[in-house]
Amino acid sequence: MEENMKLATVEDTVEYHLYLIPNEPRDSEKHKEILQKYIERIMTHFAPMLVPYIWQNQPFNLKYKPGKDDVPAHIFGMTKFGDNIEDEWFIVYVVKQITKEFPELVARIEDNDGEFLLIEAADFLPKWLDPDNSANRVFFYQGKLCIIPAPRKSEAVSWLPTVPPTIPQALNIISTHPEKILASESIQAAVNRRIRGYPEKIQASLHRAHCFLPAGIVAVLKQRPRLVAAGVQAFYLRDPIDLRACRVFKTFLPETRIMTSITFTKCLYAQLVQQRFMPDRRSGYKLPPPSHPQYRAHELGMKLAHGFEILCSKCSPHFSDSQKSPVIASPLWAGFLESLKNKDYFKGLIEGSAQYQERLEMAKNYFQLSVNRPESSLAMSPGEEILTLLQTVPFDIEELKKEATNLPPEDDDRWLDLSPEQLDQLLQEAAGKKEPEPISKEENYDLTQVSKSMKAFISKVSTHKGAELPREPSEAPITFDADSFLNYFDKILGPRPHESDSDDLDEEDFDSLDSDDNLDLETQEPGEASVEGALDDLKSYMAQMDQELAHTSIGKSFTTQKQMEPLSQTTNSNSDEEDSGAGGSVMTPVDVDLNLVSNILESYSSQAGLAGPASNLLQSMGVQLPDNTDHRPASKPAKG
Fold it and tell me: Where is there biased composition of kind Acidic residues (predicted)?
């Protein structure tokens, strides 16, 4: 509970826990050593995929977490993904793959929304599962999603607790009954659909663009490509105090700008492009006219330079990296580096070469952030890291200018502009729906689909939580128990039909029933007579209500069937008098289907092509109405 409250206070953050099974009592120091070995093996195994990844805020990281209360010691990680939700789902993919590569590990993952995997598969969850009882039930084991079930009220299962399990109970259930806790295929598919395409999807999430940047930033990003995220975030989240440092640039002078190619994530690129910003005249950053062919590159470079200047301005003037613990001092570094060599991370490069050193620096940076993450008080901020690189990494401006003449082409950024059709397709893919069938033309459309769908909808169960929409057209309607229905009426109307307390009918009205009917009731069983009498009374009520409403504005608003046989005359003398008093007209029943369809079409037409109750309800049932062409303005004749 305390852990959930802590997580709830951190926005856009995902936590992941890796437990070792079977959960047996172990010496704490020995257990810690085992888990540290697993951290080293995991981070080394996934290093080729994680090292070049550009994170929005914080990287994927693992550390040892000692046991507390009933939670055993385990491997823990927490990442703030910020505005880029893809970082969170990439972590889901990594965690899932960890349990697949290391089958003795069980993983649990959640964010500040709680069990977000269940939220993703909400349409397919069993009815008993809700946020109140989902704690410690959802895990990844051997690459599969598992949900520990709750025992039914009618039966008791010895290995299932009646309340949400504790972590030790959950680990014991997973290790002893793994085949009985697998999530359904539909739930598995919903989660797998969200992480489908990784790791190839990583490249598709990147965007390469030309930027006119100071040479210092170009040199820094060559060593630390991931720092582009910190620069974009500093500019994107700037405030007036931050911009004071950008009135006159002290670190990244505009006179040193050169053209270069920068790799962003699509989220970072969109954040940078969509911001409108004019630099201070005193800064020296001047933009060419918008018609200039390289205006976008100048604008992106100006914004990114402001972000890097803001980062450096937040560093202490007495900053020194001597207080920072070097990576090579960690006892895990030697084993980590040896494992990278065994995994052919350096691709056969000669030790000491420029490319070898570049990959080595990336590995050190990855190790520092993800494996040997220091305490927050000793962690190096992005600004301090930038200043350190500027002091330690030499760069030649002339050499960088030569590289600017042979830059790779930019990526097309038309993905920023979505058409309505593309948006609909993305929403359908996110919801896991199939491509809708083409809508028939108005003159060929079968309106019986509307009435059938509405009848199927009405036949479904509805509760205080809402109505259940029919998922499949072929699904059988809800069953109707006639005996139970009649029993309910028997309880409501009482055992004796002549004891009705209606304000509309007196007991004398019931005495006018035909004598033959009375004889039939007397020969029947008491229970059957009571039910038959109740139904006759109900029919009598309904008939009189119809007679009263037939000549009102409400009655005339409904469309009736054109051809209908006259209703049989009732034997009740009072009813005969009322019929004659009404003008002797023969009532025709209402055409329910026609009224239903006409009212829905009228509501749909009044929406004028926008979203509304009629279209939303029909689309949720898979019914697509054609466009209304009756009121379209006629095209103007061409002028001669």
Answer: 501-525
Q: What is the pLDDT of residues 549-582, one digit of tens each?
A: 777 877 777 777 764 444 444 444 444 444 444 4
Q: Model confidence at 235, in pLDDT bands (50, 70, 90)?
A: very high
CA distances from 601 to 196, 451, 454, 613 (A): 40, 11, 13, 11
Average pLDDT over residues 193-207: 93
| CA-CA-CA-CA dihedral for 628, 633, 635, 640, to nearest 10 | 170
Tell me how far apart the alpha carbons of residues 183 and 132 are, in angstroms, rounded to a whole number. 19
Task: With CA atoms as reference, report the closest residue to 17 among 55, 56, 65.
Answer: 65
Distances from the Cα of 299 to the Cα of 166, 240, 590, angstroms: 54, 20, 68
Residue 289 burial by CB count (10 A; 0-12/13-18/19+): exposed, middle or buried?
Answer: exposed
- 347, 350, 351, 352 alpha-carbon torsion, rounded to 10°: -120
Element (H, E) at 546: helix 526-550
454-492 burial by CB neighbour count: b if 16+ within 10 A, else e? bebbeeeeeeeeeeeebeeeeeeeeeeeeeeebeeebee
End-to-end CA distance of the chain: 79
pLDDT tens-digit readout, 248-305: 999 999 999 999 999 999 999 999 999 999 999 999 999 999 999 999 999 999 999 9
Distance, in Å, from the CA atom of 526 to the CA atom of 496, rounded to the nearest integer, reads 9
Long-range contacts of 396-405 (CB under 8 A, 24+ apart): 397/215, 397/256, 397/258, 400/215, 400/218, 400/219, 400/258, 400/260, 401/258, 403/260, 404/258, 404/259, 404/260
Beta bridge partners of 111: 14, 114
Sort 44 into a burial class: Cβ within 10 Å, 0-12 / 13-18 / 19+. Answer: buried
Count of CB atoms situated within 10 Å of the CB of 24: 9
Q: What is the DSSP letter of 302?
A: H
Q: Are 16 and 3 in contact (CB under 8 A)?
A: no
- Pair 302, 333: CB distance under 8 Å: no
Distance from C-alpha of 2 to C-alpha of 80, rounded to nearest angstrom: 19
Asked whether the beta carbons of 63 and 16 are under 8 A apart, the reply is no
Tokens 């970072």 belong to 268
Look at the block and give the residue holding tokens 């229970």: 527
DSSP codes, 200-249? THHHHTEEEEEEEEEHHHHHHHHH-TTHHHHHHHHHHT--HHHHHTTSS-
Q: Which residues pair with 258 in a beta bridge?
A: 213
Cβ atoms of 24 and 116 within 8 Å: the answer is no
Give CA–CA dist 19/141, Å, rounded.
10
Q: What b/e sequence results for 120-156 when a residue is b if at least 16 CB atoms lie within 10 Å of its CB, and e otherwise? A: bbeebbeeebeeeebbbbbbbbbeebbbbbbeeeeee
pLDDT recorded at residue 90: 97
The residue assigned the tokens 């402001």 is 306
Residue pair 165/16 in contact by the 8 Å Cβ criterion: no
